[in-house]
Design a protein that fits this description.
Layout lengths: L1 H26 L4 H10 L20 E2 L1 H11 L3 E6 L5 E6 L5 E4 L4
Parallel strand pairs: 1-2
Antiparallel strand pairs: 2-3, 3-4
């Protein structure tokens, strides 16, 4: 019983010492108002310019929009970029929230 209480007292002393060190460490940091002023001057994540983290290259095969829809479904993707065989331009097929498919084509 005495050894258990000695271990407990040693543990409590270690925790108290660690807590006091944290208090002293916090006193050396700038106060909250300085932190708020620094945060206000720093750019927010919303203002930051998104970075390109991945580049993917692939050959665009000429196909009809119907073929592009089948490819998109086959690959289980939300959109598919293809070379439109009818118009000769680059087009995008995408899934709509209502379950249908949309087609984006450049204007003539």
């Amino acid at each position: 019983m005495y050894s258990a209480s000695d271990l407990l007292i040693a543990k409590i002393e270690r925790r108290a010492k660690r807590y006091k060190e944290k208090l002293v460490d916090h006193k050396h940091h700038p106060n909250k108002t300085d932190d708020v002023a620094m945060e206000a001057s720093a750019p927010s994540p919303e203002d930051a310019i998104p970075q390109i983290i991945k580049v993917k290259r692939f050959d665009l095969k000429p196909m009809s929009p119907e073929e592009a829809v089948m490819q998109m479904e086959l690959l289980d993707k939300e959109f598919f970029i293809f070379s439109n065989a009818r118009s000769g331009s680059i087009s995008v097929i995408y899934k709509r929230k209502d379950g249908n498919v949309g087609l984006i084509e450049p204007s003539a």
